[in-house]
Prior knowledge:
CATH class of the largest domain: Alpha Beta
Low-confidence stretches: none
Mean pLDDT: 96
Distance between the termini: 34 Å
Oligomer: single chain
Number of helices: 11
Strand order of the largest sheet: 6-5-4-7-10-15-16
Amino acid sequence: xxxxxxxxxxxxxxxxxxxxxxxxxxxxxxxxxxxxxxxxxxxxxxxxxxxxxxxxxxxxxxxxxxxxxxxxxxxxxxxxxxxxxxxxxxxxxxxxxxxxxxxxxxxxxxxxxxxxxxxxxxxxxxxxxxxxxxxxxxxxxxxxxxxxxxxxxxxxxxxxxxxxxxxxxxxxxxxxxxxxxxxxxxxxxxxxxxxxxxxxxxxxxxxxxxxxxxxxxxxxxxxxxxxxxxxxxxxxxxxxxxxxxxxxxxxxxxxxxxxxxxxxxxxxxxxxxxxxxxxxxxxxxxxxxxxxxxxxxxxxxxxxxxxxxxxxxxxxxxxxxxxxxxxxxxxxxxxxxxxxxxxxxxx
Length: 347
């Protein structure tokens, strides 16, 4: 089948799939403006930690490409302004800050001309894009080893091509298992309140003809109690060196239920999602507009108008509930602080 590429550089423009329109419409948006790209991240037209990282890098590339600065210092100031704007889009997903840090380090070097700096920035952004595609496929290959023929895998939110440059992380693992010939099935949670599972994950799996059943978030305990799930594989927006997994709200609940029923719970993410510095108590959990909870996709009001609503976008799963963390360099196992530190300090 034709591979889904969620975001792409097109000679001075960035083109992305508007995930807010899926599954009803495949709308592709093109823009020359890093401000428009920043708003796409904020409104979740572009979402998923790796995709946000790639988008941020492309945003800096747009600023470089369209700048009229005639000297290197002036261009550098414009790029720093773009980096600052993009860094304020979403606070939790670490890939955003990882990509912007790479761009910031790049522009701090010496260049003989603004043209040389522009070229370096655009090349680096495309390098981040290509790396993500390659890494996702490696994650799929590594994760395939934990999936048995006949498994039914429960996944939460969307971790596929729409959440990355392409292919996916947790959904990439499922993809790899399916393409290797394993007869697997998927149970996808709806993922309230923005319904990324119902809208995006199901759409991707149906496109690839991978058997999928949609459930509401509140059905997880029931289906596990019935023995209908063999594995849980989710993505991550940030993973700490301690093994804490920060992912879409509802992930922690799934991990608790999985532990109760003896179902192995895995997180799949690139090593760029691993935060070696932040301690659990310092993680900022994004809180989004309460209207996302009061209305379905901003439209149908499902409660009393203006009732207070709480809308944290992510939660944190403690390491004791995590069977393994699947990355492009292998599967990290407990004790996570030791295994992650030892492996990544040698990279």
